[in-house]
Amino acid sequence: MFVLVDYNKNYSEVCESLEKLNYSPITIFKLRLSGKKEIIDQMEKIRELKSRINPKFSAIQVQVDKMENTSVGTVNSLRSEFDIVIGLGGLNKINRFFLEDTLVDFLRDPHNVIFRSKMDFIHHQNSGINHVLCNLARDRDIGMFFSLNFVLGQDKNKAKEFGRVSQNIKFCQKYKVPVLLSFAISNVNQIKTCEQLKKISSLFNFSSQMASKNVSILEDTVKKNKFRLSDKHIIDGIKFK
Where does the pLDDT of residue 123 fall: very low under 50, low under 70, confident under 90, or very high at 90 and above? Predict the structure, then answer.
């Protein structure tokens, strides 16, 4: 099974534990769009680190601090260097930016409140996506990544986050948007077997079909992106034999 792993002080320990389980880690590097010079400096450090640790599979998570005319080009260029590109959601305009304008593979946690706190409505949660954004995601083959890291945390707003994720999963199921419900592993306690992950997923009313696809979606995405960069690929849906 492929799993996402944050690069942090626990990275070596996590990778050793994953190796024993025969899991394939996808190392997440993080980029903040905060200005042209800052982006260049960050990418130099990321490339040096990536070269040094030499992960078999890599992902990059993009956080938008400042929107610029070059933001779309910056995000889309990352596909040539990383196996998976993830956009960190939150604000409605950022969620729409990633889903409408970029070539990311996943929008992560469109419900999160790192940019600004959210007030829920009387009859539904302020969860960051709606039918319009779900249709965009489906049509542009962008999945939703809902990280489970909050499940093991001590956040007092855990119940709200659970509700928002559950609502978003219902949206995705209704509009046939691919869903990844998993940990971005930052410590060994977040390493789960397939069966454990399925049990956690059941708390969010995951359908059996979604639960089955959840196990393979990362591997499928990596393979799809590697093929897109190969000589056999012309455009999606057409290839050389």
Answer: very low
* This prediction's pTM: 0.91
Distance CA 167, CA 91 (A): 17
**HSE on the CB side for 64, CA within 13 Å?**
26
Distance (Å, whole) CA 215 – CA 153: 23
Q: Are 184 and 28 in contact (CB under 8 A)?
A: yes
**How open is the CA angle 209-211-215, to the nearest 5 degrees?**
115
Q: Please answer whether residues 161 and 155 qualify as being in contact, where contact means their C-beta atoms are separated by less than 8 angstroms.
A: yes
Residues recorded for the chain: 241
Question: Within a 10 A sphere around the Cβ of 165, how many other Cβ atoms?
Answer: 24
> Which of 72, 141, 58 lies closest to 106, judged by CA?
141
* Cα–Cα distance measured from residue 23 to residue 212, given in angstroms and rounded to the nearest whole number: 17
Residue type, 215: V
Question: For residue 23, is it left (φ>0), alpha (ψ between -120 and 50) or beta?
Answer: beta
Left, alpha or beta for 167 (phi > 0: left; psi -120 to 50: alpha)?
Answer: alpha
Output the pLDDT for position 142.
97
